[in-house]
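Hi there. Long-time user, first ticket. I'm pasting a complex I've been working with (about 866 residues overall). I'd like to know whether the download I got is complete or cut off, because the file seemed smaller than I expected. Thanks.
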Amino acid sequence: MRGMAALIIKDWRLIIRNRLLLVVLVIYPFLIMGVIGAAFGDAGRPVPIALVNMDGADTGEAAWTGIETDEAQGLQRRFRRRGGSVREYEGMEEAMAAMAVGEVNVLLASADTDGTAAWLGAELSRDEIDAIEQDLRGEADAWHEFSTAEEAAASLEEGRSDVLFAVWEEDYPYIAETIWLEGENHDASALVQRFGRDVTEIREYASERLARDDLKRGRVDAVIVLPRGFVHALKTLDEVAVLNVIIDQSNLVKAEFAETSIRGFTSRIKDGVVRNKTEAVVAGLYVLVSGGDFFGTEVTGLEQIRENLLDLKEATGDRPDMQGKVDVGIELAETVIADIEDAAAYLRGTALPIELEVSSVAGRVLSAKDAVVPSLIALSILWTGVLCGAILMVIEDEEGMRVRLGLTEMGAFSLVGSKLLLATAVVFAQSAVMLALAVAVFGVFASNALLALVIIAAASFSCIGIGLVIAAFARQVAGAVVLSVLVSFPLIFMTGAVFPLSQMPGFMQWIARAIPLTYAIEALSGVMLRGEALADVAWQTGALLAFGAGLLALGSFLVRRRSV
Amino acid sequence: MIAVRGLSKEFDGVKALRSVDLEVARGEAFGLIGPNGAGKTTLIRILTGQTPPSSGEVLFDGEEIDPLQPGYRLRIGLVPQEPAFYGRLTARENLALLARLYGIDRQSASGRVEWLLSWAGLEEHADRQARHYSRGMQQRLSLAMGLVHRPDIIYLDEPTSGLDPEARVSLWGLIDLLAGEGRSIFLTTHDMEEADRICDRLAILVEGSVRERGTPQHIKGLLGADRVEMRLPAGSEGELEAVCGRLGLSWRREGEIVTVTGPELPDKLPEIVSTLAGRVSDLHYREVTLEDAFLRFMRGVD
Ligand SMILES: Nc1ncnc2c1ncn2[C@@H]1O[C@H](COP(=O)(O)OP(=O)(O)OP(=O)(O)O)[C@@H](O)[C@H]1O
Ligand SMILES: [Mg+2]
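Hi, the file is complete. Here it is re-exported in full:
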């Protein structure tokens, strides 16, 4: 091992004096970490969801205005321009139907020269509607307001108005059906707001189209449409209460988050409804026993009936023929009372919902940010390890120094040894700083940082070994870098770093098992996120050391053989 | 000091060396001249243990050796054909690193490094990164790096190729100093001026085989050495034959022109001219250069 220290000092100088190497080997992984840190810094924030409440939405009304103007054609053109996606309708009936189902919220009709009318509709915001109204007033010679659609239509037909303008006004607060849950009365929208508030950020939209537009623009991650009769269905359980959910599946992670959170709070709503109903039935059953109002019918309780029968038995003590019949009645009443009590207890039991109390194996609920750090560190070990191993070795060829070094007295393994030591030190220091930064600055959770360092060291050997193997096939730093990237890239995708291993097909899992990085990620997330001890990750650590030994041996064999 | 016997090297079908025999004496400056691809670098690579020969043997001080063995390795120095130093280390750091790797203790190492820096004229630039040096300085550094451990023989593979005339002369000065210290020098070149100026003995290597060897004088002499060309009308052949025979020279005629060649021609010239007095005109003395010799041997013309 003679001369190793001098070689290491030399290599360190070569790195820090070469701006490109400095960036690639030392700084780059931190940049990546910063980017990912920034991306996940906000993780755990509520999922933005658009809510469109159609339950009771038919309780609106159109406000009709007619104006006299000679600018009818100009106004029509301007409406087309301002209205965005303007729809055309065949006649008043079709236009009003479209408005009633919420397809558009504004109509504009103008008499054409041939006597027919052109009906246009658009979905506009309040501000846009105001702007158009301003415009109309500007051109109006006279202004009429109508209380019904028929009046308005007649006015247009008879030529008293040149242009009709209708704005859909919803009757807020509309009297939608409500349901009593958790001590409060909720309409459909309030129900979603109340139960979704922990995991979602609900924004209400007037129509499905507006909500879909924002979904496409990425302003919300999902759209929930509460159909007409939603609360009614929920209350009566006459039919299944359907919630229409639209999810942007172009981003699977986003879709997954949105769907999970929606499923979460809707199942809580369902639990609440079922519990309420069951309690009502149970209460009703007790009424059968004790008497009172049984779902609107005044009943005499079974207990009263039993009392009466007992009285009857006493009163008919002298009539043995009656006693037998009365006894049958008493027995029946007692059996039914016991059965009802059993049934009530049973219903009570089933009414209790299943509650998920989520807690993490690490003893803390983890965020996406926490979960990404082990993979991030593993990737930086791979990146820096492979590149360091490859570049430091290939530099000797590029500088023509392999031959010179070969003639010196240095130990047989000094060259490979010095590269290994320096590269391990760089990888280790880098990962340690990264880990410290993640914990201290980004507040990431790491249940056992010290053990993570052990795994980092073990993982660095394999990566440096891969680097040495690459060095045997390149003669220039540029070539080594290209090869390193070519090799690392598929490795990243074939390990659990990007896709969960368990979701891969069988043969891919076997391939993943042959890649040391897989074990590094497993072990690192084990000790950082699952609070595992050395004994729990001994197998992965052992695999890493074995891979390391094998790859380093192969690498130094290939590198040394090539020098001859 | 070094001798090779029947050395051959084949790279998948390419015969780079064909049964080469050579000898370099202690303190001698030996030059291997040959065109591109002749096998010069291959021979140096074998002699410095970078690649094994396909057949043949290498003798060091009369004993057959494996060029990889430490005893030999430490006594040879190498200046490779391609520049070899760390561009981002300074001259001092480059030299100091090699001194450490040669196992020279720290104290003597720094003395040795300073000595080499001043020897190579690099003191002023000793703390600049070597990649910023001129080509000439880089080559001087490369030379100094081959000498860190005071080798007995130094292999120089085309040390001046790519240098301007001034840098070339300055490097030659350093090589002369080495020769003066009694180190053996094994130099390859295709620069005949360099070979003529530095080497005590030469070998011409063409397509992997040694075509000729000897002192520069001898090699030049083999070409019929210098020659005299003169216009001599027909009819004087008898007298010419007589004087050439007496002086040990040879002649031949091509039309009007007669060419006379032979050893020590300048000394014998007056006698020829006086013998043929009056009949000779247009007399030219043509000095043979190593360049001529080289070109002849390269073409295989003897
Ligand atoms: N590693 C190798 N593999 C295959 N062929 C080689 C190898 N090294 C040299 N050769 C071949 O051997 C022959 C001699 O090459 P060598 O480099 O020794 O020539 P040279 O005399 O040093 O030439 P130059 O003046 O260009 O340096 C050439 O034909 C070359 O192509
Ligand atoms: Mg060569």
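A couple of notes from our side: The mean pLDDT of chain A is 84. Residues 368-563 of chain A form one domain.
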